[in-house]
Write a structure and sequence with these properties.
- This protein is an alpha/beta fold and 312 residues long.
- It has a single domain, classed as Metal-dependent hydrolases (TIM Barrel, Alpha-Beta Barrel), CATH 3.20.20.140.
- Helix content is 38%, strand content 12%.
- The strands form two sheets. Strands 1, 2, 3, 4, 5 and 6 form a six-stranded parallel β-sheet that branches. Strands 7-8-9 form a three-stranded parallel β-sheet.
- Helix 5 links the parallel strand 4 and strand 5.
Length: 312
């Protein structure tokens, strides 16, 4: 089965001592666990850093990016191939593809954006939790739309074949991308606000809009985004998948774990090696095998053909 996870913070976790976001019992994502779980394509974020555009010294976005790129061989030197295109990933093998989390990492430069595309970046989250020159996050002035430089960035992303990721983006920017951009956005690691009231989660109106424009949503495994009850399980993850399916999005949903960027995980989903538990639970919930294959990875490929020009 072609299995995709569109977000992990493993490069940040590997490059940053005392990472404040990860589970300190050890890394979630390792080459062994990717193979154990049958992961075909793991998207690894280049994170702009917790200080955002105001980062200084080792915490400035350029230094953060360089440190994470230097950590990349810790994954790819163990037989896992870095790919430039999701269609270069072969079922039955493990691959890594790059994304950006926090548009400030391009340092307000279209040339830097092109440089990151040359490195293999295919997804770009316009903001993390800080305002930047591109847009506003869900945490602050989220009702405001994209900034003028943001439109320049998105226009260039469309040319380069980089998808606009709305996870962490404010609703104003989200609706700008829905109504005024030629390419559909995606959410690499977000859940459903109907099931868990959190500003990081998508409303039903947002989900319907993504479905209508042929966008894509990767369900986040962070318990705080899955439930207000504190503890989550594999079934809680499936609740969010089922909710999107009920809204008509059976072809628009998949996995965006946020492994190595979350301090706890759902019961039964401790790391990528547990993906078979999730696939089995989807079958027990009543999803058909072709639907499970779509959720596991084919939906993401269908979405990405809009950026690569390749057929699924």
């Amino acid at each position: 089965m072609f299995l995709v996870d569109t977000h992990c913070d493993t490069l940040f976790a590997r490059s940053t001592p005392n990472n404040p976001f990860a589970d300190h019992t050890g890394l979630h994502v390792t080459p062994q666990r990717l193979r154990q779980g049958g992961v075909t394509l793991q998207v690894c974020a280049l994170y702009a850093g917790p200080d955002g555009p105001k980062g200084r010294g080792a915490n400035n976005p350029r230094a953060m990016a360089e440190a994470q790129l230097n950590a990349l061989p810790q994954l790819t030197s163990q037989g896992i191939q870095l790919v430039d295109n999701p269609f270069d990933a072969n079922e039955g093998q493990c691959h890594v593809m790059l994304s950006i989390e926090g548009g400030e990492i391009i340092e307000d430069s279209i040339e830097r954006l092109r440089d990151f595309r040359a490195l293999g970046v295919r997804l770009l989250s316009l903001t993390w939790n800080h305002e930047n020159l591109i847009a506003y996050p869900h945490t602050d002035h989220g009702h405001r739309g994209l900034k003028p430089f943001g439109w320049q960035v998105v226009k260039e992303m469309n040319k380069l074949g980089i998808a606009a990721d709305v996870s962490h983006l404010g609703e104003g920017g989200f609706w700008d991308l829905i109504f005024h951009n030629e390419k559909p956005p995606m959410a690499s690691h977000s859940c459903c606000r109907k099931l868990c009231m959190h500003t990081r989660n998508l409303t039903d109106d947002q989900i319907r809009a993504l479905i209508e424009c042929k966008g894509w949503i990767g369900i986040n495994f962070c318990p705080a985004f899955l439930t207000e009850k504190g503890r989550a399980s594999v079934d809680t993850v499936i609740d969010h998948i089922a909710h999107i399916a009920d809204l008509g999005g059976i072809e628009n949903v998949g996995f965006g774990s946020d492994f190595d960027g979350i301090q706890s995980t759902p019961e039964g989903l401790a790391h990528p090696g547990d993906f078979p538990n999730l696939l089995s639970a989807l079958a027990k919930r009543g999803f058909l095998q072709n639907e499970i294959a779509a959720i596991a990875g084919r939906n993401f490929l269908r979405y990405m053909k809009q950026f690569t020009g390749q057929a699924v």
